Amino acid sequence: MPAVTPLEAEYREWLVTRLSGYLRRPENDINVCIPFSEYGMDSVAALSLFGDIEDAFGLYLEPTVAWDYPTIEALARFLVRAGKDGEL
Amino acid sequence: MLSRLNDTPCSGDPAQGPQAAEGPHAAEGPQTARGPQAAQESQAYGATPDPGCADLDAGELRIRERVAAFEGLLGDPRDAGNPFGNAALLEADERGELPAEAERALAGFRLNDEFVPRELGGNLDRIDGLARVLRPLFRRDASLGLGYGVTSFLAAIAVWAAGDEAQRNWTAELLRDGGRLAIAYHELAHGNDFVRNEFSARPDGSGGYLLDGRKDVINNAGRAEGLVLFCLTAPPGQRGPRSHSVLLVDTAGLPEDRWSVTDRYRTVGVRGCQVAGFSFERCRVPGSALVGRQGGGVETALRSFQITRSVVPGMVLGGADTALRTVVRFATSRELYRRSVLDIPHAQATVASAFTDLLVCDSICLAATRAVHLLPEQTSVYAAAVKYLVPKLLQDACYNLSIVLGANFYVRDGDYGVFQKHVRDLPMVSLGHAGSAACQATIIPQLPRLARRSWGQGTPAPEALFRTGGGLPPLDTDRLVLAAEDDALVASLLAAVDRLEGPAEAGAELAPVRALLRALVAELNRVREECLALGPHDRTAMASPHAYALADRYTLLLAGSACVNVWLAQRQGGGAGGDGAGFLADPRWVVAALTRVCRHLGLALPEEADEHSEWMLAEVLCRYHEGRSFDLYDTPLAGPLVVDEPAAARH
Fold first, then answer.
1. Is the residue at B281 inside a domain?
2. B286 and B196 in one domain?
3. Contact yes or no for A21 and B537 at CB 8 A
4. Among partner residues A43, A50, A63, which is closest to B195 by beta-carbon distance?
5. What's the structural domain count of chain B?
6. Does the ipTM exceed 0.90?
7. pLDDT, tens digit, for every residue of B205-254?
8. Structural domains in chain A?
9. Where are the alpha helices (DSSP H) in B502-578?
């Protein structure tokens, strides 16, 4: 397993904060490896995550990005790549 | 009655072409063709091409001719021998059956062609046209509307949107031959949380799938030749938005000992619909059943819903038209205190308000169905908005009308029996497929972003969105996106304000429109502030009641935008065949409509607000007596001219 880079850690931290806000759960209760849907985040609500990412980081993504990368771990890693390649 | 209402607006609507051009009493008009005899001959109503239609495009003419031919087939609703008459449909409803004779007539009319894209041999090319063609049937009976046909369309749209060529051809052929498709997305235990669905299709190791589980409350489950199934295809334990797939299954190819149709459900409304369920046990289907890609089920469903949620409310509106017509019939013929019920101011106001609400509903239906073509990137919000708002307004209007009907509301047969049937049917067709809470849950997560990015700086919709007819770009389901980036209807509300505050529309007679629009813009600003303040937890299905209320207010603002822009388009002759001078171009209806919208929003009404009850009532009575629809299209209806019965005639 590759080490988590500082940028990836930043994305993770931001996503943990977002998710804890969405779900009204304490941040330390959120596991980065558990899918969003397992936390009770419905598919339509997950669609709004792409807009938050766009507003926070200026990354233009598909609305379904949180469906394709359904955990904080997977999404943070994807955001690192998306940031390097521009629009994916 | 009419003689006392001198300022009658009943001059025919330019949007209706032949009627308006020839006048309501011309030789080709409806009355000569009416009566039981004419109904049997499938006389077309008001479709005769005439010079007034010269500027109509071929698509618009086709829709009008089809609507008129359909109305002709459906015949006089008060003819006791007519299979589409009130008496026959009420009896079938009491028996919990779809009348076989009526179904055969619909097959003969090739109604299923409406659900098949034109390139596959059908008539489907415009979503607003689909709503308009089906509306006459929903004026008669929602059970037939859903049970004969629309259920097949709800299922087929997934195939049109995501299916391969073979699936599209098979589905087109099935429907065009009069066959049926059942749609099985939901499961009782999971409601609209269909990602939790447990009905599974597991790869069987040799390229096919094994179906396992139950689907409940499925219309036409026992008699559909094709099934569109929403199935869990991911391995056990993996649940998410990419875990499900849509399968198209030919029931003729299923091993008989591996599946069965479960007992029929009896329902409160649409009692004729054959609602049952399926049970499958390790039932093999070929790999070619997969529609789109594996794991693409939720996406296909959400894309399909954008079309079905847009179009169904526009059909259902027909039921409220009949409810209103029934109450007008009662109120003009029933004598109380030596006067007709319609002499009572409360009854007058209720009837006028119901008609205005129907116009409000039709305006947002028009915008939503045309948005599928013109603003596919934004349809996710508008489709949910119209599916939420229209059934709610129609049900509220029917409730108010039921008070005028009094004890007759509870009578299940006779002259007014259809009222209670439509009142029972309306919530069923509203709940089926997407309940109002599910629609609000689609809107709420999008509101903060739209409020921040689009409201105040968005691009207004093209004027064509608000025309009551006229050509549209082809339907392209690939352009439907799952989350809206812009909000043209809100921008169009603001654009209408700019136009009315500018020199072009400075007339003093428009002061009430301006005042009402200012009230709506003030409300928009409040809604915007509250949307921006929504917390992240309000984006999920667990959103607070406050977030649901915000979605409600937002949909009413969209309705207000649709009304004022439909009116503006008519003012400049923007309706197909319009000349800017008919009923819909008159500012009084839009003042009444915006006043209703403000009332529904619970706003303090500006001084200039006015429901124009007397004027709207005169229009209702004129359309009632001449037999024309209570919607934007003012369509000629089948049946003889209505002559008031003795109680009212004595006045």
1. yes
2. yes
3. yes
4. A43
5. 2
6. no
7. 999 999 999 988 889 999 999 999 999 999 877 778 899 999 999 999 99
8. 6-85 (1.10.1200.10)
9. 511-532, 545-571
